[in-house]
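Section 5.1 Outputs to date
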Amino acid sequence: MKKIKAIFFDIDDTLYDSSLQSDFARRNAFRAMVEAGLDIDEKAGIEVLQNTVKEFGSNYEYHFNEVLKKFGYDSNPRIIAAGIVAYHTTKIAYLVPFPDTIPTLLRLRDSGYKLGVITDGRAVKQWEKLIRLGLQHFFDAVVISEDIKSQKPYTAIFKQALKKVGCSAGEALMVGDRIDKDISGAKKAGMTTVQILGGKYTNQCPENSYEEPDYVIKKLSDIFYVLKVRKQ
């Protein structure tokens, strides 16, 4: 078994609580829209907003416009703007690392490990997260799906990350919350895989052997237990 030289991380629900952030941001956005004149029951409205995000994807820019359409409203700039402002204000307020994220990264870096990020999404948005989290300086490589036109679980994004830090798959760990993306892709690439429990994908059930993580941790600092066990 090769010695681990590099550790890669997903961002969302791995370095910070993305699920909590998204939930509160969407709830506060809808409440702000109601305050601005949208006469819709909160429970029904939030459900429609969440379904709209699933339908159009998280990077779509007109979720609130679509919500108005679904409830038979004409486009209303005031209501839409109220939702946008509340959403972004809440999103930024909840964009904070897990309590053990920075101490864990510091200890890993000081122990000589190469650190990296492998994440899906738009490059600007993912970099914004890292910068607002104050984590951008920890990483020797940040590989984002938009930049290389490949996303998890395809192995190309993992191989690119390995190339950037100069190590083999057998010398690397991948830490992420999604077994269908982080674990499956990294395992296919030959990396050791670590699932971190938390967020909306905690209860995913493996559908094949590639989705079975090598290790499971409850918080990021548990990575030191994995590294210790792996040496034994």
